[in-house]
Amino acid sequence: MSKWIAVWGITLLIGISSCSKDDPTPKPPIANLAFQLYDFRTPVDTIAIELPNGLNSTLMLKSDYTWTLDLDGAKSSGKYTWTPTANQQADMQLSITQWTDLPSNSILSNKLKSALLAVTSCGYSLTDPSYANFLDLKNQKPYFPFVRTNKK
Fold first, then answer.
1. If DSSP states are collapsed to H, E and C, what string results for 75-107?
2. CA 6/CA 13 separation, integer angstroms
3. Is the bond into 103 cis (omega within 30 degrees of 0)?
4. Helix and strand tally (H, E) in the chain?
5. Most-buried pick from 25, 26, 69, 80 (CB within 10 A)?
6. Rounded to whole angstroms, how far apart are CA atoms 91 and 5?
7. What are the two backbone dihedrals, phi and then psi, of residue 18, each rounded to the nearest 5 degrees?
8. Was domain 26-151 assigned CATH 2.40.128.270?
9. pTM value?
10. Regarding predicted confidence, which is higher, 30 or 2?
11. What is the DSSP letter of 52?
12. Of all residues in the chain, what percent carry a pLDDT higher than 70?
């Protein structure tokens, strides 16, 4: 009888230890979705800067906590943090690993870089129309930095 209890106990222990553990880090619901930038504001500007018509842009947060930006062929990338705070909102921070200026407009590139580095949170919607707004909600100025996007 004690052999059966030992075999049962070992089998139970192996079964429990082989179960996959849930990843405690929440994956962003907007991960791996392509978004198109349409306007942004830097920490020092008072007006929003619209991306010129015809300028192709794709911003993607990936599920491995990296991001990519393709701004009319100028590719940039980095890492980000993601901490959900409420329904369809999260605290986040972007860091830049590699930045490529848009050859036709380096001023626009530098301003966008500044706006991305100022981001402290993200509000998003996956319903139609889908969007992700990257904001600096810690900035108490009336003209806080942001980067607004729509799902492609």
1. EEEEEEEEEEEECCEEEEEEEEEECCCCCCCHH
2. 10
3. no
4. 2, 9
5. 69
6. 50
7. -85, -10
8. yes
9. 0.81
10. 30
11. P
12. 83
